[in-house]
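Researcher: Please translate sequence to structure tokens.
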Amino acid sequence: MTGLLDLLKPATWYVAVIAAVVLGLHLNWQDGYEQGYAKAQGEGETSIAKLRLKHSQEQQNIAEATAKDAATALENLRTEQDRGDQLATQLADSRARLRKTTDQLNGEITRVTTLYRRTLESPPEPRPAGVFTVGFVRVWNNANGINTSMPAQQTQQAPSGATTAPNGARAADSLDSGVTQSLVLANQIRNGELHSTCRVQLNRLIDWTLNGSN
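Model: Translation complete:
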């Protein structure tokens, strides 16, 4: 029995040594694992913090750029609005000036179409009747872009075989249109105002286009 115990003592000692070594290795591995985990966790948190900071900076840069673009667009819009208001005011002033001229000229129609003098020394007398034919009115209107339809005329076969109207082509052009000098003058004054207004509008549009392209 004593011999068996003597044999077991070295074995027990070896087992104890092995257990201690294993325990030491386990503790070292555990410490290394914990240290590695802590290091990896710290590096990961640092990387995440850097990414969050970078993302935050990018978002701030985007917000600042957007705000700057919006401010620039608003400033440009206000500039265009001011320029548009200025052109509109200039156009309104031009129209008012043209209308004033029209009113002034209309006020002179009666005076310049009712009486006349044969010479500067002669007294004024009623103006002789002036006839404006249908053809005159037609040509006048066509020259101003107004298509005036003429009354249909009955045609007849001429000896030569050509188709003509009674008393010659466009015989109705020779008839009295009933238009007086005052009506012709009033029409011309009105046309002058319209043409001048169109010219002013076109000039303003050209100014707007040229200034906008610069």
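Researcher: Any highlights?
Model: Strands lie at 115-116, 125-126, 132-133, 156-157, 163-164, 176-179.
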